[in-house]
């Protein structure tokens, strides 16, 4: 028997609640909405939800505080936090504390559907594993610590560390290809994103033009050609960083060698 796909939408903006409810109802899910943290916690105490869409900026209580209560009373429930671009660092912290995913407002329909689908899949796997553990506990010595096949022991903090790069005010989401610097969104092309992400992952090592082309664009070129290719992209990244934040200290040129990323956060 399949598990119920009941979803709780928590947001104090009526238009957002209505939008999320309409999209997910059309997908066949059972939706309950709450306009405050207090209402959400009441529903959670009374009902079982497979997934919660949770605004981080509620008026009566922070979304992080709500999430902490949910993870204590219903740790198997998947939580997708809703946030603004300027709160990516908070979203990273939410993932470290057990959230399944985050979505930026205004929410994109395709991203909403995918995040909800994977979140409910995770919820159902957890419930099946819990059932299996219960059956094993009944048949095995209670003192035995048997591993469950297929059980995912990866902690949220470990998953978050693998997904995000953080360095000197930069936060890079490798899954969603989102970059913020000092809480400002950087609109980068795929190649620009790849270059910046690779440089951050290798910082503070100085990277040659050839290595950057090889590792990010997956082909080998002559030294002079690599320099021309990378110089163009680095210029565009620097311009976008300066336009968004006013900073010009992130990517540093090491004459005759290549580029590195600054270790120093913005004062």
The helix/strand order is EHEHEHEHEHHEEEEHHHEE
List the total number of helices: 9
Distance between the termini: 56 Å
- Shape-level CATH architecture of the largest domain: 3-Layer(aba) Sandwich
Can you put this structure into words, describing what you see?
The chain is 48% helix and 18% strand. The protein is of the alpha/beta class and 267 residues long. It has two domains: 121 residues, Response regulator (Rossmann fold, 3-Layer(aba) Sandwich); 102 residues, Orthogonal Bundle (Arc Repressor Mutant, subunit A), CATH 1.10.10. β4, α4 and β5 form a beta-alpha-beta unit. α4 runs antiparallel to α6 and α7 crosses α9. The N and C termini lie far apart (56 Å).
Task: Record the SSE blueprint.
Elements: E1 6-10, H1 14-26, E2 30-34, H2 37-46, E3 51-55, H3 63-73, E4 78-83, H4 88-96, E5 101-104, H5 109-139, H6 156-163, E6 164-167, E7 170-173, E8 178-181, E9 184-186, H7 190-202, H8 209-217, H9 223-245, E10 251-254, E11 258-261
Parallel strand pairs: 1-2, 1-3, 3-4, 4-5
Antiparallel strand pairs: 6-7, 7-8, 8-9, 10-11
Helix pairs in contact: 2-3, 4-6, 7-8, 7-9, 8-9
Which features does this protein show?
alpha/beta; Rossmann fold; Arc Repressor Mutant, subunit A; 5-stranded parallel β-sheet; 4-stranded antiparallel β-sheet; 11 strands; 18% strand
Report a brief summary of the structure:
The chain has 267 residues and is of the alpha/beta class. Helix content is 48%, strand content 18%. It has two domains: 6-126, Response regulator (Rossmann fold, 3-Layer(aba) Sandwich); 160-261, Orthogonal Bundle (Arc Repressor Mutant, subunit A), CATH 1.10.10.10.
